Amino acid sequence: MDNDTFRKNAHQFVDWMADYMENIESYPVKSKVQPGEVKSRVPDSAPQWGEEMDTIFKDFENIIMPGISHWQHPGWFAYFPANSSPESVLAEMLTAGLGVQGMIWDTSPSATELEEVMMRWLRDMLGLPGDFTGVIQDTASTATLCALLSARERITHFNINEKGFQQTLRVYTSSQTHSSIEKGVKIAGFGRENLVLIDTDDRFAMNPKALEQAIRKDLDQGLIPCCVAATLGTTSSLAMDPLDAIGPICQKHKIWLHVDAAFAGTAAIAPEHREFMKGVHHADSFVFNPHKWMLTNFDCSAYFVKQPDILRRTFSILPEYLKTRADDQVNNYRDWGIQLGRRFRALKLWFVIRSRGVEGIRHMVREHIRLAQWFADQVKDHKDFELTAPTSLTLVCFRHVRPGLGEDELTTLNRTLLERINASGEVYLTHTVLNGKYSLRMSVAQRNTLQRHVENAWQITREIAREIEDQAGDTTL
Fold first, then answer.
1. Residues 6+ apart with CB under 8 A from 269
2. What's the pLDDT score for residue 177?
């Protein structure tokens, strides 16, 4: 493609993206294609000769777009968000155009040095301790794996990197934790049997007494406690593990404390919503994802450590072809994680924070929390619905109830309700199970979501619940 053709197509694509952002509500929030439908429309083999971009783009619209679930839709209340923003998209375009591979300072000094500054900005925005140093990872799953590997090496004086496992190391986490902890434990070689799941309290947060008991039991059996992975904002219910109680336990037993605040961390930018961070100064590592709630395109995960030398020593390998004269004066972030090659992710953070300002991000956080509380209040005040977990920040867990139905019947009822809500094309929710109760999750954190969208979600939920009741021959709603 020559430059004139590129320029022409690029303008058309930008116009299409602007139209897409403007008309996002016209799309069904959840894709309605059936399994295999998209790939059945793509040829089995690659074309032997190049095709015109107009033809390719028409296939994008006709084949690809029907199979897209629209994460930027204001009716997106599923999972946690993967928020984008116009300024982040523009920065991603520049990043793609530059084609930077920022593995070391020498390969693009701006990529490294802007990342250093952005991580200091984020640290201060969240109110993290000043002795934390940060690096951008792709996802929280990768950051968690880095924490597990660093904890593994610290406890064994870096012997596992040299000799492999010689001892049994234990990792502790809540029974409500994200699946990335288990995956990281497996990848890091601990073995799934050495992941100890700690009981939770009535708010689904880790029970510190149960943690202490588990650690003491392992010590009595000659096992070595290595790492505690605490969660600020569990996926199922956004429960907050009590760091102020967990931290001293970890310090007493010299255990690495990793804190996963992948979604909820953004809330700490608003000081009045920072209470859940109490005790974070005990942490050895901390991660949150600007690509979830902070308006930054996927992928961008902010990983902070207290002792970057342990991180570097865990991952550093220095072949002759990567040595440069500047090595002793700069950070080479290839030594701060798993990947050698690194994208220029700091650029989109810089664009977003400068464009929105800290106050602009705080306003968004406060408004989403207000909207979620409004929805929770409607549930509490309605006789045919109930909350299934305390409402935390922007997540509401609830279910439809009917007198006389057992748990199995209520599960069927709410599963049907969820399927029909999502089939509407206007709202997308997901589910979880809390204390044996099949529950709907209402996650209010999409950039485009306004009061009217939350009101619409509540209206659709009630209307479909009423339809289900009517079909069952019961009009008591």
1. 125, 126, 294, 358, 361, 362, 365
2. 87
Determine which helix (DSSP H) or strand (DSSP E) holds 302, and give its type and residue range: strand 301-305
> Would the CA dihedral through 321, 326, 329, 333 be positive or negative?
negative
Nearest to 445 by CA among 83, 67, 20: 83
Q: Is the pLDDT of residue 328 over 60?
A: yes
Bridge pairing between strands 430-434 and 395-400: unpaired
Q: What is the dotted CATH code of the domain comprising 3-74?
A: 1.20.1340.10
Query: What's the CA gap between 284 and 264, in Å, rounded?
Result: 18
Short-list 137, 191, 133, 147, CA closest to 167: 191
- What's the pTM value of the predicted model, to 2 decimals? 0.93
Question: Residue 82's Cα: distance from chain center in Å?
Answer: 8
Residue 327 reports pLDDT greater than 80? no
Give the number of residues written for the chain.
477
CA separation for the pair 403, 464 (Å, rounded): 18
DSSP per residue, 406-427: -HHHHHHHHHHHHHHHHHTSS-
Q: Who's near 433: CB < 8 A, 6+ residues apart?
A: 236, 439
Q: Which of 314, 339, 181, 183 is nearest to 258 (CA)?
A: 181
Q: Is the pLDDT of residue 359 over 90?
A: yes
Query: Could you tell me the fold of the domain covering 100-344?
Result: Aspartate Aminotransferase; domain 2 (3.40.640)
Residue 323 and residue 319: Cα distance in Å, rounded?
7
Rg of the chain over all Cα atoms, to the nearest angstrom: 24
- Residue closest to 398 by CA, chosen among 406, 410, 409: 410
Q: Which CATH architecture has domain 359-471?
A: Alpha-Beta Complex (3.90)
**SS3 state at 24:** helix
Q: Give the strand order in the sheet containing 395-400.
A: 385-387, 395-400, 437-443, 430-434
Q: At what angle do helices 140-155 and 179-187 cross, to 10 degrees?
A: 50
Q: Tell me, what amino acid is at 133?
A: T
Could you report the per-residue pLDDT of 394-444, keeping only the tens digit for each?
999 999 999 889 999 999 999 999 999 999 999 999 999 999 999 999 999
